[in-house]
């Protein structure tokens, strides 16, 4: 990972990795996330997130 310098241009890349239905109107979304810095070879952040949606 690379620190982000003040004034640097960044962009986020988010990919939906999976959707899991849990019943009772609940769904879990899993995403893969990267925060990329313009002109750098390594990302500033790499993460996976879990989000539960309840209807």
Number of helices: 0
> How much strand content do the residues show?
over 45%
Strand pairing plus helix content: what structural class? Answer: mainly beta
Instruction: Give helix and strand order, one letter per element, not per position.
Output: EEE
| Biggest pleated-sheet summary | 3 strands, antiparallel
Work out the count of structural domains: 1
Percent of residues in helices comes to: under 10%
What does this structure look like?
This protein has 55 residues and is mainly β. The chain has one domain. It is 0% helix and 65% strand. The protein has strands at 10-23, 26-37, 45-54. The protein has a 3-stranded antiparallel beta sheet with strand order 1-2-3, with no helix packed on it. A hairpin with a 7-residue loop joins strand 2 (26-37) and strand 3. The protein is elongated, with a radius of gyration of 15 Å. The model has no long low-confidence stretch (mean pLDDT 96). This is MaoC-like dehydratase. It comes from Caballeronia terrestris.
């Amino acid at each position: 990972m690379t620190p982000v310098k003040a004034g640097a241009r960044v962009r986020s890349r988010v990919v939906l990795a999976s959707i899991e239905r849990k019943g009772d109107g609940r769904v879990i979304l899993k995403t893969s996330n990267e925060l990329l810095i313009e002109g750098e070879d390594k990302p500033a952040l790499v993460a996976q997130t879990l989000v539960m949606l309840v209807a």
